[in-house]
Amino acid sequence: MNFKKILEKFFSQIRVQRQLTGVFMLALLVPVTCIGFLLLYNSQKTLFNHYQEQAESDGLRVRSIMFDLTTNFYNLSEDIVSDESLQNLLDGSWDSIAEAHIASDRYNRITEIRQQDTSIESISIYTYNEQLAGYGNFLPITEDLKETEWFQQAASTSAIFWRTAKREDTYGNTYWELNMVRQLTLPSSRSYAVLVVTASNNYLKNRIDNNALKNIITVNDDPAFFSTDRKYVGNPVPLELDTSQYSYTDSGVLSLDDSNTMASVNTLVPYKSDDRIYVISYNPQALGELRQIQSNYALILVFAILIPCLLMYLFIRYFSARVNTLRSAMHQASQGDYNIIDSFHGNDELSEAFQDLQMMIQEIKQKEALVYEARLKEQELENRQQQMEYKMLASQINPHFLYNTLETIRMKAFAAGNREVAMAIKLLGKSLRYVLDNTGTVSTTLAKEIDYLRIYFSIQQLRFGDRINYTVNIQDGLDLENYQILPLLLQPIVENAVSHGLENVDENGQILLNIYEENDTCLCIDISDNGVGMTERELADLRKNISEKDTSRTQSIGLYNINQRIQLCYGPEYSLSIASAQGKGTTVSLRLPLNKLME
C-alpha cells in the first residue's frame, strides 16, 4: 500500500473538522513554527556576532591610535635624548641664573616639537642642574621626588616605561594622563636627567570618541587615564584583566562594573617597552537592544502563529457546522422526510449544494417515478460537494505560501548554479507581490510604480534579450516618493508597447519613459516606443476605442480602462492621449493633476 492510499484511508475515517485541523497543522502551523524559531535563533546569533565584531573592530581602531601615539613618542624621545645641544645645556654652568635662563631660551627644540605635534600635552625634563631647574620645561629633582617609585625606576634603568600620572592645575582641577618616562644620560658629567612626555587627553578624545561605543584605556595596573565615561578616569579598571598574558585579548559578554556588557579587550605592548596598555571597547546598550529585538521577534512569531490558528479555528468550526447542517438535511431526505427547513445561509458552494438538495427534493416529489434521474442528480450533488471541499482546501494557499514556495524554488535554482532561473523567479515573486499588495488599494507612490515597471522590463529582457530595452528619464529635482497615483496604471501601457509596438522589431527595441512637471499644475508621463507605429486610420480607430465603450470589443480594453480610471479619479479634463506615425513608433501620454497627486 503506497503513501497516497494510506493518506486517503486515514482521512476517509475521520471527521471533516479533524481533517482540516490535521492538514492545517501539517501544512502551515508546524512549518511556520519551526522556521520561525530557526529564524529567531539565526537572527539573534547574527546580531550578537555583529555587536561583538563591532566591539572588536573598535578596540583594534583604538589600539592602532595608541600604537601610533606610543611609537611617535618613542621616536621623539630618541631625538631628544640624543640631542648634544640639550646635553650640553643640562651639563652647563653659568655665572648667574639669568644667563642660564637665557641659554635655556635659546634652546627651542622642545618648544618646536610641542607646537608641531598636537598629541603632546607637555615635555618635562627633571634635572640636577639647579641653575636650570624650575625654569621652562626644566624641573628640579627634589628629595620627595627621589622617593617616588617611578623616579627610582627611571634612575635605575635606561629603558622606556609608561605610567598613569595624576596632575592638578592652578584651579584645583584633577587630570589623569599617560606619561612616557625615560632616562636622559649625560656622558660629560656622568649624570643623568629624566625625560617625561605627557599625552594630550584632548587629542585622545578627538581621535577616539567618534562613534557610539565607549572606551577605557589603562597602563598595567594603574588607574585608567582615559575613558569615554568620566567616572572611570582615575579609578581601577572595572573589568578583570589577565595581566599574566603577554598580549591579553578577550571579547563577547564581559562583566563590566558588576554588569554584563558587550565588550572587547586588546593589549598593546609599546615599542621598546615591557609595559602593557589595555584598551577596552564596550557597548552598554548592545545587550539591551539584543533582548529588545529578541522580544520583538518572539512577539511577531507568537502573533504569526496565534492569528492563523484563531482564524483557522473559527473557520473550521463554521465550515464543520455548515457541513453538518447539510449532512443532516441530506440524511433527513434519505429517510424519506422531505420537510426540510431552509436554515442554510450564504452564497458559497455549500449554499449551492443545499439549494440543489432542495431542488432535488422537489423533483423527487414531482417525479418519483423517475428514479434513475434522481440517482444521477444525487451523484452530481456528491461530485459538486467533493469539488467544493477541494476548492475550500485549495483556497488556504495564501500569498505568503506562494512567496515562500517561489523563494524555495529560487534557492534551489541558485544552488544548482542556474542564476538566470533564480533571477527570473525572484523577479516574478516581486511582480506578484506588487500586484497582490495593490489589489483593492486606491493609490501608490509613483516611485513604487516605476520600480514595478523596472521589474516588468527585467522579466521581458529575460525573455527577449536585447530586443527589449528601456530608458527612464526623470526631471531633475522630481521626487517620485511625493506623488500618489492609481496603482497598476502604467504597466498595461508598457505591456501594450511591448506586445504591439515592438512585435515585429527583431533587435534594439526601445521604450522610453519621460516623467516631468508642466506649468507647475500637471504631471506628465510619456511612454514611447520605436516600433512599427500605426497608420492614420489605425490611430483614429484606436482613439475611438479608448474613448467609447464597446462590450463586444476584445482589443484596446486595457487602454480604455486606464482612460476611464483617470477620468473617474481626476476629472474629465484629464485623460490618455496617443500619437503615432507608421515606421516611427507610438507615444502614449498621461496628464495628471499635480495638486491631487501631491495630496
Structural account:
GO terms for molecular function: phosphorelay sensor kinase activity. This protein has about 600 residues and is α+β, with helices and mostly antiparallel strands. About 50% of the residues lie in helices and about 20% in strands. The chain is built from 18 helices and 17 strands. The strands form 4 sheets. Strands 2-1-5-4-3 form a 5-stranded mixed beta sheet. A hairpin with a 2-residue loop joins strand 8 (about 250-255) and strand 9 (about 260-270). The radius of gyration is 42 Å and the shape is elongated. Residues about 390-395 have low confidence and may be disordered.
Quick gist of this model?
With 599 residues, the protein is α+β, with helices and mostly antiparallel strands. It has helices at 3-12, 16-81, 84-91, 97-106, 109-116, 143-147, 149-156, 201-208, 286-334, 349-366, 371-394, 399-415, 419-438, 446-464, 491-501, 536-547, 557-570, 594-598, and strands spanning 120-127, 138-140, 161-168, 174-186, 191-199, 214-219, 226-227, 250-256, 259-268, 277-283, 444-445, 468-474, 484-485, 509-518, 522-529, 576-581, 585-593. Helix 12 (399-415) runs antiparallel to helix 13 and helix 13 (419-438) runs antiparallel to helix 14.
